[in-house]
Queue: 4 jobs
Job 1
Amino acid sequence: QVQLVESGGGVVQAGGSLRLSCAASGRTFSTNVMGWFRRAPEKEREFVARLTWSGGVTYATSVKGRFTISRDNAKNTVYLEMNSLKPEDTAVYYCNAETSGSRYWGQGTQVTVSS
């Protein structure tokens, strides 16, 4: 089992920045990929960014160039630095961890971008 706890959400004006954190605990050594998804009101959950154990990074087109995913192995924490935020980035952001046979989710953290 892997437990994930997100933090860092909040309300920010358009053009502002936020940094989300995802602290992992449990069987973190079995994690192959960690990433972020989001769900906007009345929309399906969508992929935002992912980071493989070997350092490979992938971003959704909508956030490329504005968001940066990174990790601190010593703290078992993954970050999502979000810059130049837009109202359409408003969503609940979920941390995700993948092992060879399972996928785990955090409880989510709300990000609201006002225009």
Job 2
Amino acid sequence: QVQLVESGGGLVQPGGSLRLSCAASGSIVSSKPMGWYRQAPGKERELVATIAWGGNTNYANSVKGRFTISRDYAKNTVYLQMNSLKAEDTAVYYCQYSHYVVYWGQGTQVTVSS
């Protein structure tokens, strides 16, 4: 079993920054990728960023240049540094890990508003 616990969400003004964390526990295989997804009200869940073994990263076009995903393999933790936040970044952000089964965290709310 795998557990994913997100933290770091909150209310921030446009142009501000937040850093999300996802602590993974259980049977984590370090070579498997992890990622961040988000779901805004009334919209489908979408990919934000992923990070694979060796540090290869992939970003949604909408966040390229503003968000950075990173991973601490010793702590089994993945981070999402979000800069220059916009109102359209408002969503519940979910951490994801998959190894035969797809695991999701409970989500953390990010609200960008003045």
Job 3
Amino acid sequence: QVQLVESGGGSVQPGGSLRLSCAASGFFVRSYVMCWYRQAPGKERELVARITSDGAGVGTNYADSVKDRFTISRDNGKNTVYLQMNSLKPEDTAVYYCSRGGIYWGQGTQVTVSS
């Protein structure tokens, strides 16, 4: 069955970096649109980044709030999707979720940015 397992979250100071990983099983990440969402306390879940399937060419989209700081990528050999997060800000603090097209979800990984 479809499974998504996130890892790589943690606590970091403002300006720091983290790389989140989403290991997939039960399907090939290259064949689907893959997304990273986040949800901060008291806020709605928001789309952070998405990457298209191989058949559609390698296309990526980002929320304005993370553009030029976050990078989504995919390693087809490892069947894993990544989110490289640089120049982190306190407002990036949230639980980050990996998703296959907004239908299948991982359990989430906490990212906390604080001095």
Job 4
Amino acid sequence: QVQLVESGGGLVQPGGSLRLSCAASKSVSSINYMGWFRQAAGKQRESVAGITSASGSTNYADSVKGRFTISRDNAKNTVYLQMNYLKPEDTAVYYCYANQRGLGYWGQGTQVTVSS
């Protein structure tokens, strides 16, 4: 089982930056896949970015390419989402996700609000 705790959300102005953190209860290098999803009010949850443990390869939603970067720190068992040039449409609850041997785990979510 994997426990995930997100942090780093908040209120930011358009064009600003935030860095989200996801602390895992076990080594992130041992978790097959980790990613960030988001869910805006009244909308379905969508994938934002992901990273695989084996190759370290990353993937991004088209809407965030060039603005968001996912990374991990194996020593801290933490995955990050660096978000730059934030837009109002990035406003959502952001969730950390882990897939370990076919089982999915979710964090509790952290609110990101982009507004002037």
